[in-house]
Every structure is written in C-alpha cells, then in structure tokens.
Design goal:
The chain is an all-alpha fold. Helices cover 65% and strands 2% of the residues. The chain is built from 15 helices and two strands. It starts with 15 loop residues before the first helix and ends in a 6-residue tail after the last helix.
C-alpha cells in the first residue's frame, strides 16, 4: 500500500485561493476581469487579432473558467501541462495593431502581469464585496498565493504584486498606458451580450447573464468606468455591492451541483474531502 499523499496542487484546501475561487460569485468576477483587461490597448489588440472572442465569446469565457479551475484545483502534473500549453500559445501571439501602431507580444512579462493583476484583483475584490469575509492579513495572503498562478504563465513571482498595497500601487502606475476606444467598447459589448448557443439563448441564461454582466460593470473601479464613458454617480458603488450580496445569497442557496464547479468536485474526490471546509 502506497503512503504517498494525494496531490493537492498549487494551493490545497486550506488555502485562501480555494476559499475564494470555490465561491460561485467568481462568475461575476470573471466578467469584471475581462472588462478591466480590455482597457489596456495591447491586451485588447491581441484579443481581437488572435482569438475567436468575437465569433465565440461564450466559448472563450468558458475556456477561461476552465483554465482557472485547473490551476486552482488541479493536480500538479495537470497544471504543469496546461501551463506549458498556454506558454506555447503565447509565444505565437505577437503583432502590431494597425490602428494604434501598438506592438504586442503575449509572452511579454509586462502584458502578462497586467492580465494576471486584473484577474486576481477582480476575484478578490468581488469576493470581498460579496462576503466581507477576509481580514486584511488574509487579503494579502491571497495575493501572495496568487504569485504561484502567475508563475504558471511564465512570470517571475518576485515581479508580481503580492499584497493589497502592491496591487493598488501597480494599477496606479499603469494608468497612463490605459484607454478605451470604439473597439474596446465593442469587446465589452461581447462580454455584456455574447452570442449564445441555441440551447441557452431562449431560456433563462440570457437575462441571467445580462444581469450578472451589468453588475460586473458596476463593480469596476471608478477610473475604469470613466474610461468606458460610464456614469459614476454618488452611491453607485454601494448600490453595486448591495446587489452583489443579494445575488451571492441566491447563488449560495443553490444545490451543490449548480454552484460548485467540476474542478472543485474532482479535487475533493481526489483528496478524500467529503464536504466543503
């Protein structure tokens, strides 16, 4: 009989990453992250020229969710294989945006760091606004854990913001590079109202998606909403938080099979965990 312990992956069930990423509100956070990433012209150019986002935004979003699920909950060999595949794809994604003249390279640490920080800040901020469950120390611990996820795509963890203060400083330092034009707004429209498979388009999925996407817009930082030309009325942040908490309560009341992803269920089975921590 083998005494080898089951592989807990990059983080494990006692991590802040499992705690945050297991929450169903991360679907809203993922939409917020995509909207935030799109305000960087180089990131937007790469998406428009080298992905099928416009033709199949639904599929792209699902594949992104699958990637996050594997990195968070998957066994180490699976994470390593996925990381190698993603880094290989990134090496082929390079070019120059004909409209702005901006050159981009998906393997560029500067661009990878932007995508990573938009993602983890969106995950953490959305979860915290929905639950208020994390202490300041736990917020910093989550960001520190996420440097391991940054390494999967080829970033040096030492160059990645690893605390709330470092993340805030990072976004402040990036502001001069950011902007939103007609094409970025078009990308945002695909996030807000994506073409859906026929099985989803005529059911409750479309209004549910529209509601979640509109909420994701309301959760953006004020400076990002200004870039998109969206109103930033007094009290809108508080209104978005109240709506988010109401949605979170509804989602948490759903049966496990609807609110827990397949990667989380597989990890629990692999590790012999019979119920959520």
């Amino acid at each position: 009989m083998s005494n080898t312990a089951p592989d807990a992956g990059l983080f494990g069930p006692d991590s802040l990453t499992w705690r945050v990423h297991a929450d169903p509100i991360l679907w809203v956070a993922g939409l917020r992250a995509l909207l935030l990433q799109a305000v960087h012209p180089a990131a937007m150019a790469g998406v428009l020229q080298h992905s099928d986002f416009r033709a199949d935004p639904w599929g792209r979003l699902l594949r992104t969710a699958d990637y996050v699920g594997v990195v968070t909950f998957g066994p180490t060999p699976e994470v390593e294989r996925l990381g190698a595949r993603v880094r290989g794809i990134h090496r082929r994604v390079r070019g120059t945006d004909p409209q702005s003249g901006i050159s981009y390279n998906a393997s560029d640490p500067h661009l990878l760091r932007w995508v990573h920080c938009c993602e983890v800040e969106s995950f953490l901020t959305t979860y915290q606004r929905a639950t208020g469950a994390l202490t300041s120390e736990e917020v910093d611990a989550y960001y520190a854990e996420q440097t391991r996820a940054a390494a999967v795509v080829g970033l040096d963890p030492a160059t990645v913001p690893s605390s709330r203060a470092e993340v805030a400083d990072y976004f402040a330092s990036m502001r001069e590079e950011l902007g939103v034009d007609r094409r970025a707004r078009r990308v945002a429209s695909y996030v807000l109202l994506p073409p859906m498979p026929r099985w989803a388009a005529w059911g409750p999925a479309r209004p549910a998606w529209a509601g979640a996407a509109s909420l994701a817009v309301g959760l953006l930082p004020r400076w990002a909403r200004r870039l998109y030309g969206l109103p930033v009325a007094w009290g809108s942040d508080q209104t978005a938080t109240v709506a988010l908490r109401a949605l979170h309560t509804t989602m948490r009341a759903a049966p496990d099979r609807f609110r827990e992803g397949p990667h989380l269920r597989a990890a629990r089975e692999r590790l012999g965990i019979t119920q959520a921590a």
